[in-house]
């Protein structure tokens, strides 16, 4: 840059940024203006200009920096660092900023010294953070280069500065800035894992090997220990944070295990010294928090065997234990720090302090306990004596917390109210309890038994005063904790690696029996009147959580893993469960399947067919094919036999005819290679399976190991858990336990109508029980379930009448319908639907007596209408097969669709009604799992679409007249997107021949499309893109229309057509992959339609309907398609995207529509780039159309996509 030009540039920058003045306001404007207005310009500036900008800002800071306000200085420093980052590869000059900062530090001025540290700190942070407008690849290239060239030098500068400042007793702000710089270097994302420095569970830090000398140098670690000892917060906290990072460095960094052991020794001894002196821990919460993190990192990054080998381990662990005990007695701070401390012990009595962090603490401690089986040598770990103490401390502190909150008048929240935190705390507890299960379980029983006795005694209490109610609330809270703890411990059975499985099952049974015994007391006496109390509701929530955990372990599919059969298989062959057995079978089949060459060789081998002829009468391949056809015909006869498939599914996991066909084909392919010596020689060498008889024998033996219903029931009943439950409570098997669970579920649904949260948890448990294949079949055998299927209305379950539970109705009826549809019983379905039949009949009767929708609205209860459609939606969602859907369809149509329209007309302006109604319609027309499969002669598909069209038109006529609303989404957009979703599902379900409508003059299709497009156009494009659900529904519909009804889209008026294409352009830029992919597919269909019918002569000789209209639209708005092509090029070339293939598909058709426009667009894209990048981009784009023809054949498309991928890779590799 010439001197005169440079001077003018500097003056212009000063005028824009206010840097010509020295006021705080003008300087603040400098940083804000550049960051907000010129951030993107920096990327596009010429390289030389960026270099000059960096030089100018550095000079300005040197001159004015020490005297500037701190916040102003920070803003300008950030601008300098971002400029350096963007100019990193422009020349060598920007990389000299580290040396320039060293020169500033040598000026002798504290202001310049602080400024240099600030610049380096901000530089590390800036390069470690992705820049908006730049790709992640470009960011990582700069970060990696900085890491390799400069980061170590910056860290050395930080260490030198810290030593100087410590010796000179400098100002605290200088020490703090130096420690901040060191922490920034140690927190750098060395390998591109996007590490969150604030994350508690920090990963191992991948420090480069060039740092080895500094990390192994004892003075480095000691420097931060010295800073902690000599300073208070915030410098002492920063020193501890640096120690946490150093404790996290990767194992392979050290030159040898000896050096790593020395490093660990220094670290542990440093922690020991801090614990000895107790300096800064009791006085400062931040120090305590970071020190606990440091202790936690010691366990996370080092094995227990390494820790016990450390010098002074015994003293260190005792000091940590003492710190834990002190923390247990402290009720002040532990809120944020217990997580780290339980990496070794626990601060659990300090529950007020620990409630936000105890999950992490338990997680670390569970890893410590889990490593005990791998501990070798004679060095004592001292864990055996302390783990039970920690477990006891946790449990007793939870119980005491209840009393403190309810009796002590504490202002702190009860941890039982924080469901997420509670589940996090209990996630790792099983590892601690099961470490010495006998001792820990005895302690648990010693606590829960007196509580149950007291709870039983309270049953007979009458006339409770305030003190008695408070004591009963404490008792309920403590029982809630114990029930939650027992449930979490039982869930730990799934992850337990203990060899004493039977003994642990017995203990599980003892603990579970106490909870099941509690159930008989909860709904008797005085406890029946406490359903509205928070403490009682917490107890019921804890019971539901216990049921979930018990179900996962001892009811249904999971219980098979506890079978003795699988224990033996696991010991000898590693086949720990039935899934492993099935996997082995499939692997054997796949191993025996031949390739093409092998198949041809076998087919020509007479020996194969001679053997088949001798054994099976299959003398040639024709005989084999004949057998296959006979088997297929036989299979077709039983495809609809639910009994056949239920048995096949029980024994072999073959749930339908597709699974049977797959197995048959695999077996027939197996017959083709029975005499292949190569295959059997390998099997003989590896597995001792010398011929096909051995293989088939093994497969049959494996099949025998797969359990049917009887076997699964036998395994469940043989569990020691049920033995204990039978001894104590008479619950001898899973059916008795399920009956007890169902009774509790029914009770909750009756008495907790006002507690939406508890009803939701109850229904979730019910749904989980019904969803499991085995547990669902077991439920069907219970009288309680049959009673619910016959008596499911609000007369029996009061929660249905509570408005807050309106959403829960869908889950309730979905679960009941799942159970109902497990058996083929049409008569039972009719009885189940009788209450809904009555509800529809009442609506029809009211409608016939009303002369207008307004009168029906006044006479029909809104809550009943809402409940009806929520119930129907749940039932419709449960129809997963053709059989079950047909039952619902035949019941619904034509009898009740008229009532649906009447309700919609009456409540069209009430979103509380229209939303569940429309969602039911959307679910009813959704062809999931091909459930909407009508006979070829059936008109049901067409009739169903006509009803959908009526619903859309009815709702659209109202919503299109809505103008100003206070809540656009709930009052307008939500109903529209559900309508668009319903239409999209109906048009993509493949059960309607849409040509029939035009052929017979039926306006259902045109009416539905017209009102849907008008509703879509009534939403501003900005709002469509702002609301994710609206965008997904809209673009899904547009994709379906452009694929199957392209002519209809083309025949729209110019405004509508332009809106559609403009919205597709915006959708392509969406960060949601599903939206951008749908838009790309829609654009491809439109462009292909135009190319085949306008650009090229149609194959049929006459253009398709809509081609002339589309040609006219593009004549009036010629920039529509080129703008879309421009957007696609910019996205593919300059941005990160995970759906490149989808985005590339429409580009060829857009190019072929008008190649002259493409050439102009290509030149515009090149010119828009910085001058230094233009030749490279042009050279890359020259390869785009290589070997690509002017057609849209699949091979030609694939070639274009391949070229585009190469162009993108080559361009981005050098930018």
From TrEMBL:
Residues 410-585, 714-807 form the Exportin-7/Ran-binding protein 17 TPR repeats domain. GO terms for molecular function: nuclear export signal receptor activity. The chain crosses the membrane at residues 618-639, 659-675. Residues 22-34 have a biased composition (Polar residues). Its main location: cytoplasm. One of its GO terms (cellular component) is cytoplasm. Pfam families: TPR_XPO7. This is Exportin-7/Ran-binding protein 17 TPR repeats domain-containing protein. It comes from Tetradesmus obliquus (Green alga).
């Amino acid at each position: 840059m010439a001197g005169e030009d440079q001077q003018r540039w500097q003056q212009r920058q000063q005028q824009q940024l206010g840097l010509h003045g020295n006021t705080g306001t003008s300087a603040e404007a400098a940083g804000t203006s550049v960051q907000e207005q010129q951030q993107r310009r920096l990327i596009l500036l010429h390289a030389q200009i960026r270099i000059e900008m960096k030089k100018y800002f550095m000079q300005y800071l040197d001159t004015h920096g020490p005297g500037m306000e701190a916040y102003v200085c920070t803003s300008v420093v950030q601008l300098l660092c971002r400029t350096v980052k963007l100019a990193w590869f422009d020349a060598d000059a920007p990389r000299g900023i580290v040396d320039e900062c060293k020169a500033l530090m040598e000026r002798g001025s504290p202001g310049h010294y602080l400024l240099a540290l600030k610049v380096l700190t901000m530089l590390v942070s800036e390069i470690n953070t992705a820049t908006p407008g730049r790709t992640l690849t470009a960011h990582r290239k700069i970060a990696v280069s900085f890491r390799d060239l400069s980061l170590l030098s910056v860290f050395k500068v930080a260490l030198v500065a810290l030593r100087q400042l410590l010796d000179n007793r400098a100002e605290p702000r200088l020490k703090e800035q130096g420690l901040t710089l060191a922490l920034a270097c140690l927190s750098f994302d060395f390998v591109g894992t996007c590490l969150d420095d604030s994350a508690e569970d920090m990963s191992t830090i991948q420090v480069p090997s060039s740092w080895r000398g500094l990390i192994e140098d004892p003075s480095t670690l000691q420097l931060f220990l010295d800073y902690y000892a000599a300073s208070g917060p915030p410098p002492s906290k920063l020193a501890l944070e640096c120690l946490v990072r150093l404790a996290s460095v990767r194992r392979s960094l050290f030159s040898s295990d000896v050096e790593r052991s020395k490093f660990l020794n220094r670290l542990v001894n440093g922690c020991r010294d801090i614990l000895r002196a107790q300096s800064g821990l009791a006085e400062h919460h931040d120090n305590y928090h970071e020190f606990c993190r440091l202790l936690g990192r010691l366990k996370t990054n080092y094995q227990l065997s390494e820790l016990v080998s450390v010098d002074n381990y015994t003293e260190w662990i005792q000091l940590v234990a003492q710190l834990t005990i002190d923390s247990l007695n402290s009720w002040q701070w532990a809120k944020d720090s217990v997580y780290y401390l339980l990496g070794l012990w626990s601060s659990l009595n300090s529950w007020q302090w620990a409630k936000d962090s105890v999950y992490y603490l338990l997680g670390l401690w569970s890893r410590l306990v889990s490593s005990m089986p791998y501990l070798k040598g004679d060095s004592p770990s001292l864990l055996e004596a302390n783990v039970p103490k920690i477990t006891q401390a946790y449990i007793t502190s939870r119980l005491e917390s209840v009393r403190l909150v309810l009796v002590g008048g504490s202002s702190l929240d009860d941890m039982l109210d924080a469901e997420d935190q509670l589940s996090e705390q209990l996630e790792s507890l099983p590892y601690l309890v099961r470490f010495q299960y006998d001792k820990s379980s005895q302690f648990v029983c010693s606590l829960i038994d007196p509580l149950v006795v007291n709870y039983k005694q309270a049953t007979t209490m009458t006339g409770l005063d305030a003190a008695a109610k408070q004591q009963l609330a404490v008792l309920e809270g403590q029982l809630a904790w114990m029930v939650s703890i027992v449930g979490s411990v039982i869930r730990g059975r799934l992850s337990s690696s203990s060899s004493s499985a039977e003994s642990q099952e017995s203990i599980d049974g003892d603990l579970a029996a106490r909870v099941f015994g509690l159930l008989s007391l909860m709904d008797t006496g005085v406890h029946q009147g406490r359903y509205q109390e928070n403490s009682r509701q917490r107890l019921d929530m804890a019971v539901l959580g216990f049921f979930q955990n018990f179900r996962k372990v001892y009811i249904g599919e999971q219980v098979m893993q506890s079978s003795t059969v699988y224990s033996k298989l696991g010991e000898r062959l590693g086949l720990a469960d039935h899934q492993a057995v099935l996997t082995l079978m499939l692997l054997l089949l796949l191993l025996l399947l031949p390739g093409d060459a092998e198949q041809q060789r076998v087919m020509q081998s007479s020996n194969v067919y001679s053997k088949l002829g001798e054994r099976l009468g299959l003398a040639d391949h024709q005989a084999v094919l004949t057998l296959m056809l006979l088997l297929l015909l036989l299979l077709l006869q039983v495809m609809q036999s639910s009994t056949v498939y239920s048995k096949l599914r029980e024994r072999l996991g073959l749930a339908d005819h597709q699974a049977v066909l797959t197995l048959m084909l695999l077996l027939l392919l197996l017959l083709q290679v029975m005499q292949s010596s190569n295959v059997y020689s390998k099997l003989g060498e590896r597995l001792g399976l010398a011929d096909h008889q051995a293989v088939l024998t093994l497969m049959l033996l494996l099949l025998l190991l797969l359990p049917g219903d009887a076997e699964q029931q036998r395994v469940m009943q043989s569990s020691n858990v049920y033995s204990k439950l039978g001894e104590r409570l008479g619950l001898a098997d899973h059916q008795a336990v399920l009956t007890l669970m169902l009774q509790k579920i029914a009770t909750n649904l009756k008495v907790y109508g006002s507690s939406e949260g508890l009803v939701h948890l109850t229904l979730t448990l019910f749904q989980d029980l019904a969803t499991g294949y085995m547990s669902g079949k077991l439920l069907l055998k219970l009288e309680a379930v049959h009673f619910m299927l016959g008596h499911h209305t609000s007369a029996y379950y009061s929660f249905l009448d509570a408005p807050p539970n309106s959403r829960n109705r869908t889950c309730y009826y979905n679960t009941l319908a799942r159970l109902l549809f497990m058996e083929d019983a049409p008569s039972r379905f009719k009885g189940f639907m009788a209450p809904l039949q009555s509800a529809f009949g009442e609506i029809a009767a009211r409608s016939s007596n009303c002369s207008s929708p307004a009168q029906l609205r006044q006479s029909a209860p809104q809550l009943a209408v809402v409940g009806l459609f929520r119930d129907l939606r749940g039932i419709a969602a449960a129809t997963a097969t053709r059989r079950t859907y047909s039952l619902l369809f035949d019941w619904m149509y034509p009898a009740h669709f008229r009532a649906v329209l009447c309700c919609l007309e009456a409540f069209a302006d009430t979103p509380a009604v229209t939303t569940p109604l429309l969602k039911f319609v959307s679910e009813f027309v959704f062809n999931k799992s091909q459930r909407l499969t009508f006979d070829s002669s059936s008109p049901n598909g067409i009739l169903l679409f006509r009803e959908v069209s009526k619903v859309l038109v009815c709702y659209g006529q109202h919503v299109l007249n809505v103008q100003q609303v206070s809540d656009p989404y709930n009052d307008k957009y939500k109903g529209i997107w559900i309508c668009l979703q319903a239409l999209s599902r109906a048009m993509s379900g493949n059960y309607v021949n849409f040509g029939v409508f035009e052929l017979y003059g039926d306006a259902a299709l045109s009416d539905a499309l017209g009102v849907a497009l008008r509703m879509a156009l009534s939403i501003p494009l900005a709002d469509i893109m702002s609301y994710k659900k609206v965008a997904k529904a809209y673009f899904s519909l547009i994709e379906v229309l452009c694929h199957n009804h392209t002519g209809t889209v083309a025949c729209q008026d110019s405004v509508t057509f332009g809106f559609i294409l403009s919205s597709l352009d915006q959708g392509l830029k969406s960060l949601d992959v599903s939206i951008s992919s749908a838009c790309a597919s829609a654009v491809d269909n439109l462009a292909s339609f135009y190319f085949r019918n306008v650009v090229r002569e149609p194959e049929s000789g006459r253009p398709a309907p809509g081609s002339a209209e589309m040609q006219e639209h593009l004549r009036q708005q010629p920039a529509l398609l080129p703008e879309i092509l421009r957007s696609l090029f910019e996205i593919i070339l300059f941005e990160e995207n995970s759906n490149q293939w989808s985005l590339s598909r429409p580009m060829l058709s857009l190019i072929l529509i008008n190649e002259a426009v493409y050439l102009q667009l290509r030149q515009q894209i090149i010119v828009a780039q910085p001058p230094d990048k233009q030749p490279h981009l042009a050279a890359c784009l020259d390869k785009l159309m290589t070997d690509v023809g002017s057609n849209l054949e699949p091979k030609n498309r694939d070639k274009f996509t391949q070229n585009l991928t190469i162009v993108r890779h080559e361009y981005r590799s050098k930018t």
